[in-house]
Amino acid sequence: MTVPPEAEREGVGDVARLRSIPEASVARLALYLRTLGELSEQGAETVSSDELAAVTGVNPAKLRKDLSFIGSYGIRGVGYEVRPLVHQLEQSLGLNHRQAVALVGVGNLGHALAGYGGFDGRGFPVTALFDVDPDLVGIHINGILVEHVREIPRIAAERGVTIGMIATPGPAAQAVCDLLVSAGVQCILTFAPVVLQVPADVEVRKVDLAVELQILAFHVARRNLDHPGVTTGTTNGHALVNGAADNRTVNGSGGIHS
Amino acid sequence: MTVPPEAEREGVGDVARLRSIPEASVARLALYLRTLGELSEQGAETVSSDELAAVTGVNPAKLRKDLSFIGSYGIRGVGYEVRPLVHQLEQSLGLNHRQAVALVGVGNLGHALAGYGGFDGRGFPVTALFDVDPDLVGIHINGILVEHVREIPRIAAERGVTIGMIATPGPAAQAVCDLLVSAGVQCILTFAPVVLQVPADVEVRKVDLAVELQILAFHVARRNLDHPGVTTGTTNGHALVNGAADNRTVNGSGGIHS
DNA sequence: GCAACTTTGTGCGTGCGTTCACAAGCGGCT
DNA sequence: AGCCGCTTGTGAACGCACGCACAAAGTTGC
User: How far apart are CA A8 and CA A6, in angstroms?
Assistant: First the structure.
């Protein structure tokens, strides 16, 4: 009569499936793909969920459920055929064609990112570099000319950039982000320690290196509470710090806490 | 009804509280701390949870709950006093004394990390650099001598290193990790695209740049399924995606787990 | 001093993500 | 050919995290 319930499976194909993949699973699927690539180089034909889970450090059941989101390509009693699975993962993750990347900010971090081979080798060629520093605009990095950020709208559109990376200082990030968005970039990876305001249809991922270290520092502190006196730790008292050579300088020297 | 508030509050102190802070909250606490530092520079004395939540892109209730994990230092009807809150956050996150960082691998990415000011400025001085490349061992970066990785156990212990950063190629990462662990390092931040095997008492956080891009590529692919034919560059996007529009925040703030 | 307003702190319902456990399916062995 | 063992795929329970909504507590104005 109305909706044939069986038709959900075949006809819809990947479209409906992709939209329903949980965000956490997407991150792991990318991890599986890289690991499978290494296994493939080592000549593996098939791999079981237990093996792949052990290598990637993931629960086997979770891995199987993740793979089920992109369709069932495993063989019961055997495992997964590596090559077909790699192909399916690449297609589901949108890696079947290369994604041009624009990198804004070629200072300390950006310069390294521009030369990082891990991007180009995985289908993300950095095709445009931008900065505002007159000393940087005009130079070549890895054979790519650094252009002025004001050229972002034109060049990004010309070269079909789909992903933008922001490696500028924090204060400049929002303006750069706006330029990228105006150029039609819908996905942005930022290293700037600010919250970017973007339209709802633009996806932003943030990598905050200082926050990563602070999270680790928290674990150090927690351990020292458990095992005091292990290393250089002293708990209370005048352990004050964090302030001197800093652009933040936020040590309130008032003892509010006994 | 009268609530007996004379509960178990003072005696527990921070020890029990720290252990119970959810991992996701710890990541956000670090974010609040940085934002508060900026607000403090701008002369703010107090800040309400709504204001701070707006700047950091977090739900106000979630923010208040996060802060409640480290103790209640807000004033009802007013907000939070910035300086005491900063101090409390620093103490809870273990930032009241500097954490020496060792960086292994001063190639492309590592070189940038060594010169990145964001670490030293936030209480994480990079105090030791290591590599295996004879062309790199012996040079100075930011005034720090690059030593051979075989010196890791001795130098890391000497300089009280508590955090290790690994920016080596993937194949070398595990060996470097073992050296750091043998030197007593309990927290490791790795950029190598491999799963590190460590003892249970060592904390590892992984930042995988290629995976980050692949996650973004997935979102590009998903959008292209919605709008086939829309390549890029169509400047004015009325690209309303699906009507879903769940107010999933713009900030990924993803926890990158090991 | 009292009332009205503001903001914190938190109990609770809801939804997502993870994990367990098991049925279904496939290949190899006899 | 048929049985056995192995592995996938998934239903269901568990746990965590998020966000709403409200009471408690403090401030401002009269």
Answer: 5
Say how far apart CA A46 and CA A48 lie, in whole Å: 7
pLDDT value at B78 more than 90: yes
Burial (0-12, 13-18, 19+ Cβ within 10 Å), B190? buried
3-state secondary structure of B152: helix
Q: Residues in chain B, how many? A: 258
> B68: how many CB neighbours lie within 10 A of its CB?
13
Query: Measured between CB atoms, which of B235, B242, B252 is closest to A204?
Result: B252
Residue with tokens 């086939």, as numbered in its chain: B228
Quote the DSSP letter at residue A102: E
- Fill in the DSSP letter of residue B96: S
The domain over range B100-209 is classified in CATH as 3.40.50.720: yes
Interatomic CA distance for residues B80 and B75, integer angstroms: 6
The DSSP secondary-structure symbol of A237 reads S
Asked whether the beta carbons of residue B211 and residue A241 sit closer than 8 angstroms, the reply is: no
Q: What CA–CA distance (Å, rounded) separates B177 from B164?
A: 8
So what CATH class is A7-92? mainly alpha
CA pair distance B192, B110, nearest whole angstrom: 11
Q: Where are the alpha helices (DSSP H) in B42-133?
A: 49-56, 60-69, 82-92, 108-115, 117-120
In A, minimum Cα distance to B247 occurs at A200
Query: Are A211 and B31 in contact (CB < 8 Å)?
Result: yes
Identify the sign of the CA torsion A112, A114, A119, A120: negative
Residue percentage of chain B with pLDDT more than 90: 63
Homologous superfamily of the A100-204 domain (CATH): NAD(P)-binding Rossmann-like Domain (3.40.50.720)
CB pairs under 8 A between A and B: 302
Question: A75-130: per-residue pLDDT in tens?
Answer: 999 999 999 999 999 998 888 888 899 999 999 899 999 988 788 888 899 999 99
Q: Which residue is closest to A246 within chain B, CA to CA?
A: B121
Which residues, 6+ apart, have CB-to-CB distance to A254 below 8 Å? Answer: B83, B84, B87
Where are chain B's structural domains? 19-92, 100-209
CA distance A49 to chain B (A): 16
Which class is domain B19-92?
Answer: mainly alpha
